[in-house]
Structure formats: structure tokens, C-alpha cells
Amino acid sequence: MKNLSPLHAESRVSWLAHTASACLIDEARLSPKPGLVDSRGNGAHQDLNLALMERSARSLQPTFHALAEQSWRRPADIALRETVGRLGREGEAQMKLATGGVNTHRGAIWALGLLVSAVAMLGGEGQSQAIADAAAALARLPDGFAPKSFSKGLRASRRWQVPGAREEAQCGFPHITRLALPQLQHSRARGASEPQAQLDALMAIMTSLSDTCVLSRAGMAGLQAMQQGACEVLAAGGCASFAGRAALARLDAIMLALNASPGAPPISLPPPCFSTELPANAFRGCYGTDYIVISCQPRPERPSAGRSRGFRRYGSTLYRRTERHAQRTDHHLSG
């Protein structure tokens, strides 16, 4: 990895901060997202709207800049972990000043903040898996200054015995590297528009994620409804197809009826610094071979990788092995 001049490093730090903030704005505007704030309206939220989300995202740019600056070419150690934790808490305070006390992006400060720090730790370079590994190494370290408080997400995680945002980061964001990025690349390759491909990536995460935001509002039945609905969108051909868009509209109606919205988006649309181009056989990096989605059954337990006659399951999604070099024209099939 080449050494950059201080001026060049500062420009990369500024770019990282701008990109992270812009990522949150793009995510907020992306439509239609089931139950979430988007360009259509407030979704299942009473205290959030698009203007507030955008103001919050812009208020976090200095935080992302500080995270990148302090993390630049540093190893994952306790000192950096505590610095990142402090900057994140300061960023949360600034966010609440900008939003009048509304918690708009607390989860994004954790997830996206770790990814920004990880990119900076690698000197502004690195492939997606290396970035995820660096973020995981940092997330696994203790922060002795973290307040001993329980968020709604942590309460739901413990009540339902499912992994939450902390575990997702400590495992290297598998829902991004194993589901969202491959789906994003695949949908693009099949001719989906960029918003459609991003929505498909969100659906891929929602098929499997044990979303503590949904669990807090709608319980296990709500989580299973979300996972099954996301599976149906992808099984119908994704958001580029008429059937997929119809399934997405049904999922949106379900989430509104449940008064629930997923907490996945802050990590579902990886910023350009993380979303490196993946090969055509992107699933191979996850499972050692190529797999395609063939069915989804809601399963809230921890991700497993059971193997049977060419099949593997990750969370609620079942994958079938394909020929390594075959052109995948039927990525999502009905189960």
C-alpha cells in the first residue's frame, strides 16, 4: 500500500466524510422503501421526515471526517476503539442538536462510522472484505468509556435471543458482504436501474436480518412477515420486474399496518468506498462456490450454513449451487 502525502491523505479523509454523509442522504431519498421514510412520505414514523433525515445526515459529516482522520493508517487497538467510541457519542449529540432530539441516525453512526474508520485504517484503499474485516476487528474491542445503558435494539436482541447491530459489526457485516453486495451486482448485471438494484440489495438484507427495530415494534411475527415479504420481492424478479414491484407494494402495506420499519438501511446501501465491484460469481466468495436464491422461509435463529445435496441456508434464505461459470439468468426462483 503506497504512502500518501499529508495533503493527499487529507483530501481522502474529506472525500470519505462527504461520501458517508451523501450515502445517508441517498438512502433516505431512495423510494419506495417498505415502512421507511423516503421521497414519498414518512412511512411508519410519526417523528421523522425526509427533510429531517437529510439535515441529520449533513450534521454527521464532521463526525465522519473526525473518524477518518483519527483512524488514518492506524491499527485496531484499544486506544483507537475508545477514540472511535468517543467521536461517535459526540456525533450523536450533534445529530440530536440538528434534529431537535430525534434519533435519526444512531445506528448509522455505529455501522457507517465503523466502515469509514476501517477504510481510513487501510489508507483509503482496500477491497470490501478487507474493509469489513478491519471494521470487525475494531468492533470486537472493548470501549471502557461506553455508557452502561440499554438501547431498544439491545433489549430486543436479548429478549428474542437474536444478534443485533453489535454482533453484525463484530462479524464483519455479513449481510453486506454476503447478501447486499452480491445482490447489488447481480441486479445491475440484469439491467436494473441503480435505484432498483439498491432496493434489491435492501430486500436481500431483509430476507435474513434479525432486525431489532422490527422486533421492538412488531415482535417475532412482524419480523417473519418482513423476511417473507422481502423474499417474495426477490423471488418475483426483484424491483426491476412488474411482479417484484407489486410484491414490494404489498410488503410496504404490511409494514405500515404493523407500524414497523426495518433498521437495515444505514448498512444496506454501502458507500462507494465499500461497494467495490464484485465478480460475476460474487456468491462464490461467500460459500466457496456459486449459489442462487431459490426459496425463503422466515427463520429468526442465528445464521447457519447447513449443507445438503448442493443447498445452503444463510438465515432465512436457501441457496442452490450453480455451475461455477454458468450465466445466472434465473437468480431468484420460486421455492
From TrEMBL:
<dbReference type="InterPro" id="IPR017555">
    <property type="entry name" value="TriPribosyl-deP-CoA_syn"/>
</dbReference>
<comment type="function">
    <text>Involved in the formation of 2-(5''-phosphoribosyl)-3'-dephosphocoenzyme-A, the prosthetic group of the acyl-carrier protein of the malonate decarboxylase.</text>
</comment>
<dbReference type="GO" id="GO:0051191">
    <property type="term" value="P:prosthetic group biosynthetic process"/>
</dbReference>
<protein>
    <recommendedName>
        <fullName>2-(5''-triphosphoribosyl)-3'-dephosphocoenzyme-A synthase</fullName>
        <ecNumber>2.4.2.52</ecNumber>
    </recommendedName>
</protein>
<comment type="similarity">
    <text>Belongs to the CitG/MdcB family.</text>
</comment>
<keyword id="KW-0808">Transferase</keyword>
<dbReference type="InterPro" id="IPR002736">
    <property type="entry name" value="CitG"/>
</dbReference>
<dbReference type="GO" id="GO:0005524">
    <property type="term" value="F:ATP binding"/>
</dbReference>
<keyword id="KW-0067">ATP-binding</keyword>
<dbReference type="GO" id="GO:0046917">
    <property type="term" value="F:triphosphoribosyl-dephospho-CoA synthase activity"/>
</dbReference>
<keyword id="KW-0547">Nucleotide-binding</keyword>
<dbReference type="Pfam" id="PF01874">
    <property type="entry name" value="CitG"/>
</dbReference>
